[in-house]
Amino acid sequence: MGPRLVALTAAWRWSHGRGIAASSARRTPRSAVASWASIAALGLLGACAAKSAPAGGAGGASASAAVGYVVVEPTRVALTSELSGRVGAYESSEVRPQVSGVIEKRVFTEGALVTRGQPLYQIDSSLYRAAVNQAQANLQSAEANLTALQALADRYQPLLKMQFVSRQDYDNAAAAAGQARGVVAQSRAALDTARINLKFTTVPAPISGRIGRSLSTVGALVTTSQANPLTTIEGLDPMFVDIQQSSGELLALRRSLTSGGLAPGSAAVRLTLEDGSLYDQVGTVEFSEAVVDPTTGTVTLRVRIANPQGVLLPGMFVRASFVQGVDTAAFLVPQVAVSRDPKGQASVYVVGPRDKAIQRRITADRTQGAFWVVTQGLDPGDKVVTQGLANVQPNKPLRPVAANTPQRIAPPSAAGVGNSRASGAGGG
Fold it and tell me: Is the pLDDT of residue 28 over 50?
């Protein structure tokens, strides 16, 4: 007998024993019908509650969350730093006049490549050529005077031995000859100076490189003390890239290298240009300065890189990437598996003993591609949960499978189809 029939029978017996059903039917037929409807509804609810109760008791067992995991193992992870930098010329020279005068002509093409010693400007040389001629004449006069005075001193020397001249006369003649030799030396130095000044009227290129625009035109008066240069030459191959790194990061890196936590990295540097493209040449770190900039708290590192095509220009901003060290015992964990609390502390869920979820705090300070680089908090072979994290709770049971395992859906069996049809036909 079903639960619903038992409930209806009990209700009828109760009402029949007290004689309520018959009297109610005669007095108020509508009330009797309502009473029977209420009794039937109570019986129906009791039957449905009996069917919906779990077979294992009132509480039942809690369902396990299905999750996907990855097994992590320590690996070598390069400590790559990406820093901003500014390109500078390997050599730079401001061309300035070394003598004063009027520019007669410019003998270079603006923006062209020039070589060291190549003439750039020609300054009016007439005054300096005249100075050379005057210096030559002064030298000739001094040399002639020296010849006469030296001959007199030589003539007095044997006469002094025969006492035909006094010692005073001989000393005066020898001193005059010596003074004449000094005048000759001064005249010769003046001639050299005049010749050098005459040479400076042709302004040469002090270095090889690409020359800029001319800041002085033909006919302009230039002086040795002027503020503006005539032009500027930049040596563009190779180039320097000055990058700045925080002194705190550099200190932590050196401490890790000293303690053995990191292996030294290579000094190779790759550049990312302003348009996001990767520069095709590889540079090397030349040195790092031993002074911290007090205004920014950074240390400047200088990179030398080839520039055969002239792509890099002085003043250009770039991004420099280079490996400063290699962590030999780090873990690469997918970023989706790592969560952070309001304080910024990172944590992951791992599959613990008896397939229970264990929340593990980790140290993850940087990323590499789609992974967090974890340096503390994990052990080799840990199963880190990466899928189904929304249903995971600490210390709750899990149904772990390898991440990205395809789900297998089996066709329904004949027995299951029969049972479902039978329950649908006789269910309440």
Answer: no
* CA 390 distance to own-chain centroid: 34
Domain boundaries 66-70+329-402, corresponding CATH code: 2.40.420.20
How far is 208 from 201, CA to CA, in rounded Å? 20
- Does this model's pTM top 0.70? My answer is no
CATH number for the 98-232 domain, one of 3.40.50.150, 2.40.50.100, 3.30.420.40, 1.25.40.10?
2.40.50.100
Q: Which of 127-136, 306-315, 323-332 has the lowest mean pLDDT?
A: 323-332
Cα-based distances in Å from 107 to 119, 126, 210, 423: 7, 19, 15, 105
Distance CA 365, CA 357 (A): 24
Say what the pLDDT of residue 102 is: 92
In the predicted structure, residue 375 carries a pLDDT above the cut 50: yes
The CATH fold of domain 79-89+235-327? Elongation Factor Tu (Ef-tu); domain 3 (2.40.30)
pLDDT for 346 beyond 50 = yes
Query: 140-176: string of b/e by CB count within 10 Å (b at 16+)?
Result: eebeebbeebbebbeebeeebeeeebeeeebeebbeb
Q: Is there a contact between 323 and 268 (Cβ–Cβ < 8 Å)?
A: yes
> Would you place residue 200 in the very low, low, confident or very high pLDDT band (cuts 50, 70, 90)?
very high
DSSP string, 318-375: EEEEEEEEEEEEEEEEEGGG-EE-TT--EEEEEE-GGGBEEEEEEEEEEEETTEEEEE
Buried/exposed 17-38: b ≥16 CB within 10 Å, e otherwise: eeeeeeebeeeeeeebeebbee
Peptide bond into 238 cis (omega under 30): yes
